[in-house]
């Protein structure tokens, strides 16, 4: 039995109506106040390894140069599998937005701020929900890993590849086909070395084709095969 | 006129009383007490023999036939019994319904003729007069209640028993005795008065002199067994127990001919409703047999609404938490009770005062529970009721505590008191025994309440606070214990329920600009549509403005390419459009095309096609795979100037 | 669709469900939902139903392909909140018109919120004939209405102004107050002091009858009066400054005024949205009209909330 902390909706309101955080530079979440808006969930078969997670996040922030875009992407690629491993909870729990709000606001606020300081919408990296996997930063890393982890071979190769390409991860986590794991993995495996521009048109064409093709009836290999054909067409017509 | 509800409750009382007596007389083994309600409809020779054995007609002087007494008893104005009169008026000697209640694995009617502390004596004792609350309270022995007679059309009940033990060697089971309780009546010549006791027994003058009534018959040879057989009270086996025959079964105040099939259903419902604790523990087995020979065992389906209570009670020794964890979960808490000190003047070894608790089990309802309540159609078996029981494993009553659920979750609860608090087979603690005695003594004759006020019997046995302690298990102390569990604390940030109608404004403006025009403006004779043909999307439509007083108008046509989410991903350029009506201008704007029409034209017809979507692909199959051919939708928007505008 | 597609050809029915092999429940046939949120702690639910392929299926395959047809019958399971999509096979190819049983077991730890299940008929071989028939394997050729498994209590999107409990003993809160509004933002709220046990007790009581529910009706009217006065004045101030309402809730206020007896009482029978905006802005910005507005507003809001009626009823019911 593990106790999972969850920030209540009222805590979210508090952040949304906060005067300085996160809008002002070097501002911090109102931790003391937020503590009053915590709930707990008791979950069987769940563990959160904070020691390892703390260590990994701390190390990442020193190893990677967060001022450079490529480095930030590389950090995500490196951290996503670790986040997924350390936060070992069933999807039912990972789908509770408040769990991620607690982690970003009360556990790792500095990390989130550093990772996204260049971004316009820092607030959604702290808040944000599952409906929009692009938003909450830790949820994004966890779910991205969850959807691309190779269960049979027990490795995160596709996860690394997915996060290593900003355009790819954005597009995949923004599409509804991401929920079909073979599709998410096929994208990472097939398009990891494609140019950003091509990724966009390939993914768009793939999405169009799903108006007639039933995604769930396709295997990962069939999807890769199809992506290959789209890639050829896109590369040839350009 | 009594209401139907009241009648039902009379029947319930009957079933409760009968089952409670049998249950109390269970033998100390692991087998259940078995009670069978058997209905027989006697006709023809069976009925003739029955009436003869009952001496319904026969010797008239001195009067020894029952009919004679019944007819005169009707005349008693003080003890008017309309049911009796109705029977006499309608009975034609052709049909009679007899209910026999067999109990098995019970002690039977043990006891000497004049020992009123034993089941036999309690049955034959004088209870014909006024029964006070204290007279039989606390006594669990015997069928010493008029309820059996009330359900006989001629107020006559026959008992045949195999008692567990007998006093002398010549007492060989079965033991047979019958009793009528009729209004007192006079002989015509006015020189003799009959009291309300009538007996069927052994005509032994010396015993009649000694006891004031005939003693029971014992089976010397087979004569008594045969008589019992004729009287429909033969025992199902040689084991101990009692068979009780209710002559001419009726429901007091109801019509003379109840249907045994209906009765069977009601009996089983009442049995399950009040005895589910005993049944669920395997201590009691109740059956009903109808004249057609069908036998039904009472089970939860006869009163599905007990299931939530049974579920709740089954957690008595399992659940530890005093918090509900969602629908279907069970929590356990306690209610304080102080049993006052017993009165040493009345009892030899009086108990001291005990401060103790009884157990309260609470189940949060789920939708299945609600369905089961609906099926039961019994206001006791519904949400927010507390079923109360003690060691007898019978539900004393169901208390309505809806007020507690006003703020909180719907629930059912079981209040488990006294000896019922100790696990099966364990010896109860002194506290549990004390509570058991206290509550047992508080029960009125019907055992359907715990009554502290105006209870002389309790007052006689205890010194100290009685009324408040008994009331605690029904009133505020019970409510507080329930509320602690059922009512959830609010936390900062929780929404206040049901406030939506105070200011219904948060949806913003619902009538925004787009729908402001309100409703469709075009009347389509042929609804515009698109279909795929030979590499192009084709389209066609025919129609005009609804409002005939229109100014110039236009129609813009776009073909949307749809993606997986059926949202428009982009548009497919319109390549050609042909207005089939004259006087229409065509303007291409990007992928769309607009048809401009002047005010003199009321309707146009158009057709056209998109660019080829498979250009440069060649293979149609591949065109699908690479997302060139997709689902598409024709988007037609119209703009109509009104006369005023122009 | 660019090829023959039989929409509504598949009839998907759910007959019942059971938890962990035990308790069973029945679906809501009107809404085509399977509400599971009131059944407590279950870990697995098994749904039972069937999918019937109707006769329009013949239209979507060329004559030489069947029946039986080269397609599989599946149910698509889509759990949006837990990012899970998969197919449940109902019938292997080839399939014909007729009814097929389906049994589906869902693991609660993998789900949250709603799970949508949709029947589909999918080609399992390429079609030699090609268009106008679906040419490729993997293409869907028939569909039907879906069912929704409601795993968790739906959070309803309410149009009502939110009332929430708040601990007023915290810093920055008026600890002696009962209600406090918080309306300068796009997301205003009315806060109720949760330290006042008696009031919480009343507000948490249901909509039945008795002292507490009746008192709740009265409290609602009471809160409503002060809330509405604030809402109208704040909205009017915004209009006076900016010419129009700024936030959604302010538009809601104007709309509610124009459509309710508030508008009738404050302005006139036919005051539409635009009229309310201009009148309100006008009366707020002119001090002489403001006085009158406030008076009218107090009257109008009391009528709107049925304050006198509720109070009268309460006194009748509960006077000693």
Number of helices of chain C: 7
Question: Judging from the principal axes of the Cα atoms, what is the shape of chain C?
Answer: elongated
Q: Work out the count of structural domains of chain C.
A: 2
**Cα shape of chain A:** globular
Query: What's the structural domain tally of chain A?
Result: 2
Low-confidence stretches of chain A: none
Helix and strand sequence of chain A? EHHEEHHEHHHHHHHHHH
The poorly predicted ranges of chain C are none
The Cα radius of gyration of chain C reads: 29 Å
How many strand elements of chain C?
A: 13
Describe this protein's structure.
The complex is a heterotrimer of chains A (238), B (646) and C (320). Chain A is mainly alpha-helical. Chain A has helices spanning 9-16, 31-35, 50-63, 69-86, 91-94, 97-107, 109-116, 122-126, 137-148, 157-163, 166-174, 181-191, 196-209, 220-237; strands at residues 2-7, 38-43, 47-48, 87-88. Chain A folds into two domains: 1-151, no CATH class; 165-238. Chain A is 61% helix and 7% strand. In chain A, the strands form two sheets. Chain A has a two-stranded antiparallel ribbon with strand order 1-2. The longest helix of chain A is centred in the first third of the chain and has 18 residues, at 69-86. The mean pLDDT of chain A is 90. Chain B folds into three domains: 4-301, no CATH class; 304-486, no CATH class; 514-642, Immunoglobulin-like (Sandwich), CATH 2.60.40.1170. Chain B is 25% helix and 27% strand. Chain C has two domains: 6-150, Sandwich (Immunoglobulin-like), CATH 2.60.40; 163-318, no CATH class. Chain C contains seven helices and 13 strands. In chain C, strand 12 and strand 13 form a beta hairpin. In chain C, helix 2 packs across helix 3 and helix 2 (211-242) packs antiparallel against helix 6 (287-305). Chain C is elongated. At the A-B interface, helix 1, helix 13 and helix 14 of A face helix 18 of B.
């Amino acid at each position: 039995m593990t106790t999972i902390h969850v920030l209540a909706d009222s805590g979210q309101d508090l952040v949304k109506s906060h005067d300085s955080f996160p809008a002002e530079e070097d501002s911090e979440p109102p931790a003391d106040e937020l503590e009053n808006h915590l709930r707990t969930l008791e979950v069987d078969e769940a563990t959160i390894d904070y020691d390892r997670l703390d260590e990994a996040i701390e190390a990442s922030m020193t190893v990677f140069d967060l001022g450079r875009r490529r480095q930030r992407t590389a950090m995500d690629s490196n951290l996503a599998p670790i986040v997924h491993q350390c936060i070992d909870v069933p999807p039912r729990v990972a789908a509770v937005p408040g769990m991620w709000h607690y982690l970003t606001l009360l556990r790792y606020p500095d990390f989130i701020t550093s990772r996204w300081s260049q971004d316009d919408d820092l607030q959604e990296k702290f808040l944000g929900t599952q409906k929009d996997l692009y938003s909450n930063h830790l949820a994004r890393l966890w779910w991205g890993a969850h959807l691309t982890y190779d269960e049979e071979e027990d490795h995160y190769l596709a996860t690394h590849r997915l996060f290593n390409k900003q355009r790819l991860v954005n597009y995949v986590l923004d599409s509804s086909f991401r929920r079909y794991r073979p599709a998410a993995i096929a994208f990472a495996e097939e398009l990891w070395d494609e140019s950003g521009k091509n990724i966009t048109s390939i993914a768009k064409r793939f999405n169009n084709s799903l108006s007639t093709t039933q995604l769930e009836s396709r295997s990962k290999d069939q999807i890769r095969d199809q992506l290959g054909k789209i890639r050829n067409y896109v590369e040839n017509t350009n | 006129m009594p209401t139907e509800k009241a009648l039902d409750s009379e029947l319930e009382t009957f079933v409760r009383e009968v089952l409670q007596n049998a249950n109390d007389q269970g033998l100390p083994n692991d087998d259940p007490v078995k009670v069978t309600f058997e209905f027989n409809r006697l006709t023809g020779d069976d009925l003739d023999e029955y009436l003869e054995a009952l001496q319904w007609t026969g010797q008239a002087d001195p009067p020894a036939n029952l009919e004679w007494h019944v007819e005169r008893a009707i005349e008693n104005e003080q003890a008017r019994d309309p049911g009796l009169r109705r029977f006499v008026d309608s009975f034609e000697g052709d049909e009679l319904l007899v209910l026999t209640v067999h109990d098995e694995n019970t002690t039977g009617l043990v006891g000497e003729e004049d020992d009123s502390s034993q089941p036999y004596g309690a049955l034959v004792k004088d209870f014909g007069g006024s029964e006070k609350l204290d007279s039989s309270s606390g006594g669990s022995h015997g069928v010493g209640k008029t309820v059996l007679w009330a359900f006989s059309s001629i107020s006559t009940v026959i008992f045949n028993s195999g008692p567990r033990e007998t006093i002398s060697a010549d007492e060989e089971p079965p033991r047979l005795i019958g009793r009528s309780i009729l209004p007192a009546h006079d002989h015509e010549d006015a020189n003799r008065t009959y009291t309300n006791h009538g007996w069927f027994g052994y005509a032994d003058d010396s015993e009649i002199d000694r006891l004031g009534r005939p003693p029971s018959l014992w089976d010397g040879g087979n004569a008594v067994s045969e008589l019992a057989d004729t009287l429909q009270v033969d025992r199902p086996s040689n084991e101990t127990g009692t068979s009780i025959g209710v002559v001419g079964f009726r429901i007091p105040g109801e019509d003379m001919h109840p249907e045994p099939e209906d009765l069977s259903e009601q009996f089983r419902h009442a049995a399950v409703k009040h005895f589910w604790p005993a049944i669920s523990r395997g201590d009691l087995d109740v059956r009903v047999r109808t004249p057609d020979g069908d036998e039904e065992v009472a089970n939860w389906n006869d009163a599905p609404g007990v299931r939530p209570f049974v579920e709740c009670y089954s957690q008595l020794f399992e659940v530890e938490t005093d918090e509900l964890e969602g629908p279907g979960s069970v929590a356990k808490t306690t209610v304080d009770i102080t049993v006052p000190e017993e009165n040493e003047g009345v009892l030899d070894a009086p108990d001291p005062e005990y401060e103790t608790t009884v157990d309260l089990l609470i189940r949060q309802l789920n939708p299945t529970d609600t369905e089961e309540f609906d099926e039961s159609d019994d206001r006791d078996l519904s949400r927010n009721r507390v079923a109360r029981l003690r060691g007898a494993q019978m539900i004393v009553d169901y208390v309505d505590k809806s007020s507690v659920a006003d703020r909180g979750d719907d629930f059912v609860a079981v209040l488990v008191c006294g000896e019922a608090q100790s696990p099966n087979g364990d010896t109860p603690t002194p506290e549990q025994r004390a509570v058991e005695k206290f509550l047992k003594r508080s029960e009125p004759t019907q055992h359907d309440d715990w009554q502290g006020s105006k209870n002389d019997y309790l007052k006689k046995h205890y010194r100290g606070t009685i009324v408040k302690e008994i009331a605690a298990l029904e009133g505020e102390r019970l409510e507080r214990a329930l509320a602690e569990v059922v009512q959830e604390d609010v936390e900062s940030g929780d929404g206040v329920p049901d406030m939506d109608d105070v200011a219904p404004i948060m949806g913003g403006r619902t009538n925004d600009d787009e729908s402001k025009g309100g409703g469709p403006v075009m009347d389509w004779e042929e609804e515009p549509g698109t279909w795929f043909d030979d590499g192009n999307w084709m389209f066609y439509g025919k129609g005009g403005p609804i409002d005939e007083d229109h100014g110039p108008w236009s129609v813009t046509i776009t073909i949307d390419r749809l993606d997986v989410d059926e949202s428009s991903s982009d548009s497919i350029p319109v390549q050609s459009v042909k207005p089939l009506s004259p006087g229409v201008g065509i303007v291409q704007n990007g992928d769309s095309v607009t048809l401009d029409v002047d005010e003199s034209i009321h309707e146009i017809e158009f057709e056209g096609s998109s660019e080829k979507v498979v250009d440069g692909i060649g293979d149609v199959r591949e065109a699908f795979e690479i997302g060139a051919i997709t689902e598409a939708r024709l988007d037609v928007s119209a703009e109509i100037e009104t006369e005023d505008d122009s | 669709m660019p090829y023959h597609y039989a929409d509504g050809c598949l009839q998907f029915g759910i007959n019942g469900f059971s938890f962990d092999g035990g308790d069973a429940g029945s679906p809501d046939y009107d809404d085509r939902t399977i509400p599971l949120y009131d059944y407590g702690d279950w870990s697995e639910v098994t749904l039972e139903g069937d999918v019937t392929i109707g006769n329009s299926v013949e239209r979507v395959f060329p004559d030489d392909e069947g029946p039986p047809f080269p397609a599989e019958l599946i149910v698509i399971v889509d759990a949006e909140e837990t990012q899970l999509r998969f197919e449940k096979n109902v019938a292997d190819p080839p399939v014909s018109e007729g009814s097929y049983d389906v049994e589906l077991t869902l693991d609660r730890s993998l789900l949250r919120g709603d799970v949508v299940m949709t029947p589909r008929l999918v080609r399992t071989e390429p079609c030699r004939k090609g268009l106008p028939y679906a040419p490729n394997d993997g293409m869907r050729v028939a569909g039907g209405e879906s069912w929704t498994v409601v795993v968790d209590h739906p959070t309803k999107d309410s149009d009502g102004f939110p009332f929430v409990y708040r601990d007023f003993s915290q810093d920055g809160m008026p600890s002696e107050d009962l209600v406090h509004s918080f309306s300068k933002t796009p997301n205003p709220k009315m806060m109720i002091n949760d330290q006042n046990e008696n009031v919480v007790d009343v507000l948490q009581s249901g909509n039945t009858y008795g002292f507490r529910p009746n008192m709740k009706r009265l409290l609602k009217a009471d809160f409503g009066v002060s809330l509405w006065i604030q809402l109208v004045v704040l909205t009017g101030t915004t209009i006076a400054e900016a010419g129009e309402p700024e936030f959604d809730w302010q538009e809601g206020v104007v709309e509610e005024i124009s459509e309710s007896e508030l508008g009738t009482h404050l302005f006139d029978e036919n005051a539409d949205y635009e009229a309310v905006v201009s009148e309100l802005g006008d009366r707020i910005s002119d001090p002489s009209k403001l006085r009158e507005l406030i008076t009218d507003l107090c009257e109008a809001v009391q009528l709107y909330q049925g304050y006198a009626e509720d109070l009268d009823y309460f006194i009748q019911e509960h006077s000693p």
